[in-house]
Amino acid sequence: MKTYLSLFLAAGILFSCNESTEISDSVRDTAHIEEPPVTGRVLRDTDTFSVGNKHFSIQPLAKSSFDKLDTPDYDSTEDSQIAKDRAHVKRQGDSLYITLNNGQVTLLANNIHSADDSNFANYFYAGYIPAIHQHLVFGSYYESSDYVLINADNGTITHVWGIPVISPDHKYIICPSVDLVAGFNNNGFQLFSYANNTLTHEGNVEFSKWGPGQMKWLDNQSIEAEYIVLNDDMNEVPKPVKLVIR
Hints:
Elements: E1 17-18, E2 41-42, E3 48-51, E4 54-60, H1 74-84, E5 89-92, E6 95-99, E7 105-109, E8 121-129, E9 134-141, E10 145-151, E11 157-160, E12 165-166, E13 172-177, E14 188-195, E15 198-207, E16 211-219, E17 222-230, E18 236-245
Parallel strand pairs: 1-11, 2-15
Antiparallel strand pairs: 3-4, 4-18, 5-6, 6-7, 8-9, 9-10, 10-11, 12-13, 13-14, 14-15, 16-17, 17-18
């Protein structure tokens, strides 16, 4: 569903891409799905599901701790984000250069003038995540979007569905994405583990009846999440839940 486009790399650039459309090793809870578990999709409302070897249960919360957030405008905020990391990041026209800690340079080049819309790509620098040594870039494509993580030490590139949400012990990362209406982006989340400066993809899960909005770790075993559904007018209605991991 999602279109991933080639990244144009300068000489000496380290490149490795983790495609985020792979969902083959995800949900295993066959009691709560309506198609084979290898697809990684949960089609019905359910209070339990699995991602990789982690089992999640959904519990209600009486009150949300989230403030309403506006959709980020990365076009207008990129300059300020680059200014914060100007020792490592610069933009020249359609090219975004990221200098790694090993001295090599990673280049992400926009492709916004192509006659073929399917090759459209527009990248915006979104900041540095020190807890996992990753630069964050927002990628906008013809009919989808995602985020690109670039390892600041070795240049490894990982495409993820949403902004990474990191556990307090920095061992796990959830990347949520909600798209209940258009269906251009994934509607679910990815789970990664992090150790020795390496992100390991543990699995994905996608939902059909609800989508995960904002998420934050309450501790290393539980996450507060917005459980978003659509009302009769096709408006998003969030409610707070807690995801407990076992």
